[in-house]
Every structure is written in C-alpha cells, then in structure tokens.
Amino acid sequence: MQRAVNSHDDYRPGGQLNLDAGLSWRATPLVNALLQFNAHVRDRDHGAAAEPEDTGNRMLSLSPGLSVAAGSVGRIYAFVQLPLYQYVNGTQLTQDWSAVIGWRQRF
Questions:
Q1: What pLDDT score does 21 carry?
Q2: Which residue in 73, 83, 74, 79 sits closest to 33, CA to CA?
Q3: How many other C-beta atoms are found inside a 10 Å radius of the C-beta of residue 70?
Q4: What residues does 73 pair with on adjacent strands?
Q5: 88-94 contacts: CB < 8 A, separation 24 or more?
Q6: Cα gap 11→22, rounded to integer Å
Q7: Which residue from 11, 33, 13, 38 is spatially nearest to 97, judged by alpha carbons?
Q8: What is the arithmetic mean of pLDDT over 44-53?
Q9: Cα–Cα distance between 79 and 102 in angstroms, integer?
Q10: pLDDT tops 90 at residue 6
Q11: Whole-angstrom Cα distance, residue 37 to residue 85?
C-alpha cells in the first residue's frame, strides 16, 4: 500500500494498493517454474494541479516465469506479465505485456 503523506503545488497522487500471490514448482534441481497473480488498484490524483479524470486504474495480471540456479547461492529469474483485466479512467497508456529479469543473491 502506498499513500502520499503530503502534497506539492496543490497536487497529491492517488494512493495505490498492490497484491501479489505466487507459486513455485521445482521442474529440475536447477530450474523452478513460477506463477504469480498480480492485482493493482490506484486512486485518482487530487488537487488543482491534478487531472483526476485521467488518473486511477484497476488491473489484474497473470505472470508466468522461470528461476534458474546461478552458482550455489544465486538465482536468475524472469517473468512475463500478461494482463487479464485492465480498467483505466479517461485516457491513459496501458501495456499489452511486460517483462522483468532479475538476480537474487543469498549472503
């Protein structure tokens, strides 16, 4: 959950809530199959400098991915995020899909 605690020049961004749930299956000793469900809700912006009619959204996505062992304490992971539901207020840009690649390291 994220909410602005202050405003600047009569503008305050809308609060947002992200909920994520995921599963991991061990496909081989080195590879895990991953699946996430992602939900995102964002309120409209506020203030005289805001454009509330063109802000705020609700989105639900499915994110399949893989995680591969990289050494004894690291993993490389990748997800492709596919929208299941998107609703935006007014005119906003949305994505048909997105991707993330990352590295996780244990110390």
A1: 98
A2: 79
A3: 14
A4: none
A5: 88/56, 88/57, 89/44, 89/52, 89/53, 89/54, 89/55, 89/56, 89/57, 90/51, 90/53, 90/54, 90/55, 91/54, 92/54, 92/55, 92/57
A6: 35
A7: 38
A8: 93
A9: 9
A10: no
A11: 12
| CA-only gyration radius of the chain, Å | 18
Q: Are strands 57-70 and 74-88 parallel, antiparallel or unpaired?
A: antiparallel
Residue 71 has a pLDDT of 87
Number of CB atoms found within 10 A of residue 56's CB: 19
10 Å CB burial of residue 81 (0-12, 13-18, 19+) is middle
Question: What is the average per-residue pLDDT within 5-32?
Answer: 95
Query: Residue 29 has which token pair?
Result: 């000793």
Q: Is 54 helix (H, G, I), strand (E, B) or coil?
A: helix
- Residue for token pair 């063109």: 54
pTM given for the model: 0.82
DSSP state string for 66-105: EEEEETTTEEEEEEEEEEEEEEESSS----S-EEEEEEEE
